[in-house]
Structure formats: C-alpha cells, structure tokens
Amino acid sequence: MLHLRVISPVSRTEDVLAMLRVQPGATHIVLTRGGALDPEGDAVQADLARECADEVVDALEAMGLAHTGAITLEPLDTVISDAATRARRLAPGDPDDTVVWEELIGRTREESTLNATFLAFLTIACLLAAIGIVTDSPVTIVGAMVVGPEFGPLAALAVAIVRRQGRLARRSLLALVVGFPIAMAVTAVGALAAQAAGWLSLERIDEIHQVEFIYEVGPFSLVVALLAGSAGMLALVSSKSAALVGVFISVTTVPAAGFAVVAATVGQWHVAFLSACQLGVNMVGIVVAGVLVLVLHPHRRRAFRGTQGARPDRVW
C-alpha cells in the first residue's frame, strides 16, 4: 500500500474528502484542520491500495492541489488493519500489475540526473570494466555491470517517450551523452597509464578469451538487451527492486564502453568499433523494451487519460 499526504486549501478540503470516501481502495482517512503551515491549509492523510493510487493522484491534480497545496506518496511495507485488507480487496486489479505513474516518473527522474555521483559511479564502472578486460576476468566485468548506473537514464528515456515528457527525455539524454564520454575519457587516461607502465599491450589484448563476448555483436545481443530491458521496467513498475540486479548483469553497456577504450588505446580499431556497436545495441534494446512494456501494460489507458489534462511541463 501507499501512504498519501495532502496539503489542501480550506476551500478544497471537502472535495478531497469526498473523493477519498468514494474511492474503494482508500482507507485510514485522517483530517487535521489547519494542520499545514507552509503552504497553509488542512492536512489530509490516507492509505491507498496501489491499484487506485494513480486515479487518486489524477483527481487531486485536477483540483489544482499540485499548485495550491502538495501531494505526497510514500510506500508502506507493513499495514496491519482489517480496513486496509478490505481496501486492497475492493480495489480493482492487482498491485503488481499497477503503474503508479507519478512514483515511476519521480524515481526515474532521480536516477537519470547528471551529477557528480552519477559520473563517479559510471567512471568507476568503466575503470572496473577496463581492468576486467586487461586481466581477462569475467568476475570483474560482472562487478562493473552491477556498479554501472546507466539503466536509470535508459529507463527514464523510455518513460519520457511513453508519457511525452520532453524535460525528462532531455535530462536522460544529457546524462548518457555527457556521462559516457567523460567516463570513457577518464578510462582512456588510465589505459594509457597502464600501457606506459607495461601493463597493457596489443599482445595482451590478443590473449583475451574469457571476455570476448563483450564485443561479439550478434542477434543475441539485441535479444538479451530486449529481455533485460523488459525485466528492468517490470521491476520498476512493480517496485520489485531485487530483480534489477539480474538486469544489471545481463547487458554489456559499461563493459562495451570500457572495451572500446582499451581496444582503441592499443590500436585495435576493429574491436573498438564492435564494442561501440555493442554499446549502442544494448542501449537501444533497453529503451525499446521499456517502451513496449509500458505501452502494453494493462494501465496504459489510464496513463494517457492522465496525460491529456497534464500541466505544460508534462508534454513535449
């Protein structure tokens, strides 16, 4: 379930309460008159079944509360209540099949922001991938896959395409277009230093056998990217974050970027080109799969119904 907290102008409070009372998936409704100080108004709280959360948020936004008050949603891990059990039973659908769009947009927006933390994780992941390539170590390559934060912007781009959110799309593309070149440039400096120290050479690259799969582009590259992207988006939609680890170690985005840098450093331009192609195939496959999952999802119609009355910053 989700916990809803609303700051409502006094003139809108009765409308909020009336909407919540007729919502079968809403329970534990609490009203505190004059409880909100900034912005001023009444504080309304309720617990919602995930199945009805998107509909409730749409109704609150239609009342203008995103501008005149505030709408907050928080996940609840444990709720012990007969009323909550009844609300979950009466709410139509299944919680795992429910898209809470504002929650999904908020999560992907946060994970697709270009900042120092994102760049640090991406750079560390590329450096780990380069070390795994030089040492022919699949274990290190898997570590680089897990550390890499690139799935966040790719998932956000898929959400932006489906919801027609230009701002989110630009944010995601900025993180990818700026983040990867910076991480690869730092990795190139490290590779050149390793070459100068005698740790990296053309002969050493030719002896690599266990990590050749990184640059071997084929039909299965796209298939794996599509499957991983689908699993990742389903994990985000259903809030099953444990499945994301499997997604991270299924695709070779960061390892391909690292391999392209290492191969270019020693003059293996053909391998560098194939690695770059592998990177592109994986990124495109993940985004396409994410879009397909969201478009084919049972709650797709509700999503587009909410978009029709969207605020200006929610359209292209």
From TrEMBL:
<feature type="transmembrane region" description="Helical">
    <location>
        <begin position="114"/>
        <end position="135"/>
    </location>
</feature>
<feature type="transmembrane region" description="Helical">
    <location>
        <begin position="217"/>
        <end position="237"/>
    </location>
</feature>
<dbReference type="Pfam" id="PF04087">
    <property type="entry name" value="DUF389"/>
</dbReference>
<keyword id="KW-0812">Transmembrane</keyword>
<feature type="transmembrane region" description="Helical">
    <location>
        <begin position="272"/>
        <end position="296"/>
    </location>
</feature>
<protein>
    <submittedName>
        <fullName>DUF389 domain-containing protein</fullName>
    </submittedName>
</protein>
<dbReference type="InterPro" id="IPR005240">
    <property type="entry name" value="DUF389"/>
</dbReference>
<feature type="transmembrane region" description="Helical">
    <location>
        <begin position="141"/>
        <end position="161"/>
    </location>
</feature>
<feature type="transmembrane region" description="Helical">
    <location>
        <begin position="173"/>
        <end position="197"/>
    </location>
</feature>
<feature type="transmembrane region" description="Helical">
    <location>
        <begin position="244"/>
        <end position="266"/>
    </location>
</feature>
<keyword id="KW-0472">Membrane</keyword>
<keyword id="KW-1133">Transmembrane helix</keyword>
